[in-house]
Amino acid sequence: MEKNKAASRLILIQDLGILLFMLSMLGAALITGLTDKELMYQHTALMLAMLLSALLTGLRAQVAGTVITALSVLVFTVYKLYVRLAYFTPIEWTAYLWPALLAAALGGMSMFISLFSSIEGMNGVLNKRLDELTVMDPVTGLENLRSMVSSLKRYMALSERNGTSMGLMMVRLRYAEEIKKVLTRAQFNDLRHILATVIQNTLRLEDRVFTLDELGSFGIIYFSLENGAPIVKSRILTAVQKENMVPELTGQQLTVEVSVVFKQYNAALGKDAMKYISEVEKEFAYEV
Question: Please, which residues bridge with residue 259 across strands?
Fold first, then answer.
């Protein structure tokens, strides 16, 4: 509840900041449009200075925006005092409003941008945490890369302790970017779902399958001797070749191919799951 109130307070202050800026610009526009024509150039220059300061502040260059505003007020004040003392020209009443308008515009924009950055940062952290917590891919129904890393660490430790034969296999959709451009989003998601189903049906129950990205890449933790991995690879390639991956493309032919690489676990890898994954990914360079 307190967090919700704090967030609402931030949004309210942000709205007040942009409102202050807009009112300042409105006041500057009214002064420029309603005063005598001989002051038009003076007021136009001040409005441009105000806009430049707001633009720099909006681009996160708040120091530069502050400097522009301070210089504008200083130059304008010196100019009005010089004209008053040198030519005995009376200072118009609107001249006293410009420093306040310039300061208000800078303050309003600074308030808006600073709080906007805070909200952006909060949203970024929340999205990152949500991605970290989300372990199930809704398209394939499989656990994601984060879950694979966690599981791989456990299985590597068990293999090192008990001598269990295991390995890591990766399946990557060939020309995924090109296929994604040809298909609609729904068709490509169907392709990923069918591919995941084919891989799962090819493997044994004890083997674990994970989705690695949104381009049709999968990770497989298999439990087998090293000479059994090529057999698993061959079965996956054969099953994918036989399956119609995009049934909606009636009357059209789309060839879907995958690359499959693997590496048997050995004690030299220890419990470093990320290093193990990296070693397997390197095998794609030799996969034709």
Answer: 172
Quick one: which of 31, 12, 13, 21 has its CA closest to 54? 21
109 burial (CB, 10 Å; 0-12 / 13-18 / 19+) is: buried
Neighbours of 130 (CB within 10 A): 9
Q: HSE (CB half, 13 Å, CA atoms) of 245? A: 24
Sign of the Cα pseudo-torsion (181, 184, 186, 192, in order) = negative
Say how far apart CA 91 and CA 174 lie, in whole Å.
Answer: 75
Side chain identity at 135, as an amino acid letter?
V
CA–CA gap between residue 117 and residue 39 (Å, rounded): 38
Give CA–CA dist 212/172, Å, rounded.
Answer: 9
* Structure-token match 């005063």, residue found: 35
Give the global pTM: 0.55
Question: What amino acid occupies position 41?
Answer: Y
- The pLDDT tens digits of the residues spanning 196-232 come to 999 999 999 899 999 998 899 999 999 999 899 999 9
Nearest to 57 by CA among 111, 120, 123: 111
Q: What is the mean pLDDT of residues 61-82?
A: 91
Report d(CA 277, CA 172) in Å as an integer.
14
Contact 99, 76 (CB under 8 A): yes
For residue 66, the Cα-to-chain-centroid distance in whole angstroms is 30
Give the pLDDT confidence of 138-192 residue by residue, as tens digits: 889 899 888 898 899 999 999 988 888 999 999 999 989 888 888 888 889 999 9
pLDDT band at 1 (very low <50, low <70, confident <90, very high): very low
Cα 152 from chain centroid?
A: 27
